[in-house]
Specification:
- By secondary structure, the protein is mainly β.
- Helix content is about 15%, strand content about 45%.
- It has one domain (about 30-255): Galactose-binding domain-like (Jelly Rolls), CATH 2.60.120.260.
- The N and C termini lie far apart (about 70 Å).
């Protein structure tokens, strides 16, 4: 009995001594951050720390093998429409420039059809290329509004980690009517940190994929997306010399056209 009490006391003592270190390692600063509002066809607007930021980008849609073509019109088609979830903005009393991203898809036959919606931007040469949109902080949950037409379809969010490894996050069925808020947990097994500086390595959103059930009709259906957000941990442990990893600092001293020794 005495030996059991001694073991318990030693275990408690070790746990108490270790508590401050553990608490520091798991400190969190959870925030809901808008990654893309889909209000603008040419740039994304996101909110981080109560400050709006903008960045050039364009969303593009591409269909699978049996995507329909009628004359010069290739499906699926993408558009920014004057619509939004009432649960978020009601009747828009402030007259904000609100839109959502819509896709109208048609396929020539039933089957395992799909389409991909992905962000692009211009590279240094002006060419439009796929763009991995960074998710701020250590992302825990993806939060997106989706409008469904009750077709037997599903959707996925595709992300890529800092090593270039892709992951598919299942958004679930779109067999519902109207706007629905969908939350998709991001597994802790997907790495978003590394042991070297900078520790924090954000995930990148690469595309949204919509798939049809092989028995579902595919002669024309709509899906809309709005308010792409993440619930994310914005906490970063401080360290002396953190500014040495700022992108502006690195560009100033280590860019390829920097004069040696300057």
């Amino acid at each position: 009995m005495k030996r059991g009490r001694l073991f318990f006391s030693l275990t408690l003592l070790v746990a108490l001594n270790a508590a401050p270190t553990f608490a520091d390692d798991v400190a969190q600063q959870l925030a809901s951050v808008v990654v893309d509002r889909f209000d603008d066809a040419n740039q994304r607007v996101w909110n981080e720390g109560q400050i709006d930021s903008t960045e050039d980008r364009q969303w593009v849609v591409v269909g699978s093998k049996f995507a329909a073509k009628e004359g010069d019109v290739q499906y699926p088609r993408l558009a920014y429409v004057d619509s939004w979830p009432d649960a978020l903005f009601g009747t828009n009393p402030n007259k904000l420039a609100l839109k959502s991203l819509g896709v109208y898809a048609k396929f020539d036959r039933k089957g395992f059809n799909f389409y991909e919606v992905y962000p692009t931007k211009k590279d240094a040469t002006g060419a439009v290329v796929p763009y991995g949109m960074p998710l701020p902080g250590i992302a825990k949950t993806i939060d997106i509004w989706v409008w469904g037409q009750n077709y037997n379809t599903t959707f996925e969010i595709h992300v890529r980690d800092y090593r270039g490894i892709p992951y598919v996050l299942k958004g679930g069925s779109l067999q519902f009517t109207g706007w629905k808020n969908v939350q998709i947990p991001i597994p802790a097994s997907i790495p978003q940190t590394q042991p070297y500086l900078p520790h924090y390595q954000p995930l990148k959103l690469t595309k949204i994929v919509v798939r049809t059930d092989p028995e579902e009709r595919v002669d024309g259906f709509y899906v809309y997306f709005d308010q792409f957000k993440v619930l994310t941990d914005m906490h970063q442990n401080p360290y002396d010399g953190r500014t040495l990893m700022d992108s502006d600092f690195i560009s100033k001293y280590w860019s390829s056209n920097q004069t040696q020794g300057k």
